[in-house]
C-alpha cells in the first residue's frame, strides 16, 4: 500500500482565502477578486506561518478527485486523496465600496490643472475558525488611494490590501518574537517580504496572562512597552533590528518567548496616525505645486 508523508509546510496553520463579496465597485469584479485572492495568499504563504490552500480552482480540483475515485488515475493517487488536508481557518471579506473617479486640482500659482485617479476603499474582513465557526479576528479597512496611471490601479490596490490584511492576521495570530539578543541587536523570528530595511517597530515584553473570570477564556497578556527598533537586516527566515535609542536596556529585559515586536502602524493611536498622515499630505501637496511650477 502507498502512503504519502505530509510536507512540513502542511503542518502549519491551514487557511483558505475565499473570493470577496462585492457590493459596490466600478472596477472589473473578476479581476479584483483574482488579484486580491492571489496577493493575500502570496503574502500569507511568504510568512512561512501558514499553509494556504487553493480555493480558486475548486471545480478543477473536484474533477481531479472524481477521476481518482473512478480509477482513471494510478492507484498511488488514492493515497494522496486519503491524505487530503482540510482548512483550519477561512478568510472571508466583503467589499462595501471600491470605486474610482478622476479628481482635478488647480495649482494655486498657475492655471495648470492636475488630474489624478482617486479610489475609495471600504473593505471588511474576518477570520473564521472552521471547527467552532467562531470569528477569531475581524476588521474594517477604509482609505483613499491616489494614482497617476489608470493601468496601475489594480497593482496598487493588491499591494496595499494584501499588506493590510496579511499583516493584521500575521501579527494577531503569530506575534513576531525576539528569538535572541546579541551585541545589542534583536534577532526576529520572521523575515522575507514582510520586513523592509528601515521600517520601525515597537518592542514589548509580555507579562502576566489575563483570563476572563466568567468564561475562563485567555484574553492575552499584559504588555510593557520597551521602546522602538528599526529593521537593519532582512533574511529569508529572520530579520535583525537595532534599538533607536542606544541607551535602551533590551538585553537586560530579555526573556525567551516573552518579547515581541509590532509595526508602528499597529501600535500607535488613531490620533497620532491622523496627525502624521495630514503632515504627509501637506508635504506632498507642496512638492506637487513646486513640480508643476518647475515644469511650467
Provide structural commentary.
31% of the residues lie in helices and 37% in strands. Helix 1 (29-46) packs across helix 4 (153-173). It is built from 7 helices and 12 strands. It has helices at 29-46, 58-69, 76-82, 153-173, 250-253, 264-267, 270-295, and strands at 13-17, 21-22, 50-53, 89-106, 113-129, 135-147, 176-182, 185-188, 200-211, 218-234, 239-243, 259-263. It is globular, with a radius of gyration of 23 Å. The longest helix has 26 residues, at 270-295. The protein folds into 2 domains: 8-170, Rossmann fold, CATH 3.40.50; 176-267, FlgT, C-terminal domain (Thrombin, subunit H, Beta Barrel), CATH 2.40.10. By secondary structure, it is α+β, with helices and mostly antiparallel strands. Strands 1, 2, 3, 4, 5 and 6 form a 6-stranded mixed sheet that branches. Strands 7-8-11-10-9-12 form a 6-stranded antiparallel β-barrel.
Rg, alpha carbons: 23 Å
Share of β-strand residues: 35-45%
Our measurement of the CA-to-CA distance between the termini, rounded to an integer number of angstroms, reads 77 Å
Sheet with the most strands?
6 strands, mixed
Poorly predicted ranges (pLDDT <50, ≥5 residues)? Answer: 78-83, 266-271
Assembly annotation: single chain
Number of alpha- plus pi-helical segments:
7
Q: Fraction of residues in helices?
A: 25-40%
CATH architectural label of the largest domain: 3-Layer(aba) Sandwich
What CATH calls the topology of the largest domain is Rossmann fold
- Element-level helix/strand string: EEHEHHEEEHEEEEEHEHH
Global shape: globular
Derived from helix and strand composition plus strand pairing, the structural class reads: alpha+beta
Amino acid at each position: 500500500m502507498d502512503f504519502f508523508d505530509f510536507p512540513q509546510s502542511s503542518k502549519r496553520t491551514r487557511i483558505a482565502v475565499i473570493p470577496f463579496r462585492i457590493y459596490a465597485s466600478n472596477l472589473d469584479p473578476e479581476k479584483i477578486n483574482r488579484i486580491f485572492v492571489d496577493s493575500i495568499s502570496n503574502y500569507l504563504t511568504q510568512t512561512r506561518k501558514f499553509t494556504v490552500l487553493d480555493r480558486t480552482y475548486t471545480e478543477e480540483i473536484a474533477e481531479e478527485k472524481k477521476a481518482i475515485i473512478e480509477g482513471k488515475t494510478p492507484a498511488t493517487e488514492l493515497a494522496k486523496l486519503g491524505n487530503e488536508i482540510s482548512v483550519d481557518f477561512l478568510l472571508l471579506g466583503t467589499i462595501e465600496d471600491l470605486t474610482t473617479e478622476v479628481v482635478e486640482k488647480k495649482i494655486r500659482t498657475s492655471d495648470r490643472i492636475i488630474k489624478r485617479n482617486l479610489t475609495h476603499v471600504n473593505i471588511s474582513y474576518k477570520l473564521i475558525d472552521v471547527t467552532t465557526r467562531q470569528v477569531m479576528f475581524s476588521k474594517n479597512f477604509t482609505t483613499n488611494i491616489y494614482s497617476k496611471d489608470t493601468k496601475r490601479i489594480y497593482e496598487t490596490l493588491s499591494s496595499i490590501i494584501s499588506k493590510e490584511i496579511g499583516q493584521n492576521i500575521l501579527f494577531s495570530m503569530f506575534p513576531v518574537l525576539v528569538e535572541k539578543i546579541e551585541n545589542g541587536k534583536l534577532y526576529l523570528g520572521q523575515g522575507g517580504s514582510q520586513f523592509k530595511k528601515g521600517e520601525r517597530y515597537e518592542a514589548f515584553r509580555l507579562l502576566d496572562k489575563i483570563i476572563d473570570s466568567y468564561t475562563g477564556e485567555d484574553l492575552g497578556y499584559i504588555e510593557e512597552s520597551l521602546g522602538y527598533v528599526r529593521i537593519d537586516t532582512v533574511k529569508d527566515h529572520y530579520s535583525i533590528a537595532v534599538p533607536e535609542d542606544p541607551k535602551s536596556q533590551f538585553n537586560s529585559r530579555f526573556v525567551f518567548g516573552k518579547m515581541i515586536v509590532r509595526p508602528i502602524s499597529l501600535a500607535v493611536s488613531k490620533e497620532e496616525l491622523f496627525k502624521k498622515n495630514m503632515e504627509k499630505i501637506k508635504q506632498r501637496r507642496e512638492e506637487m505645486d513646486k513640480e508643476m511650477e518647475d515644469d511650467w
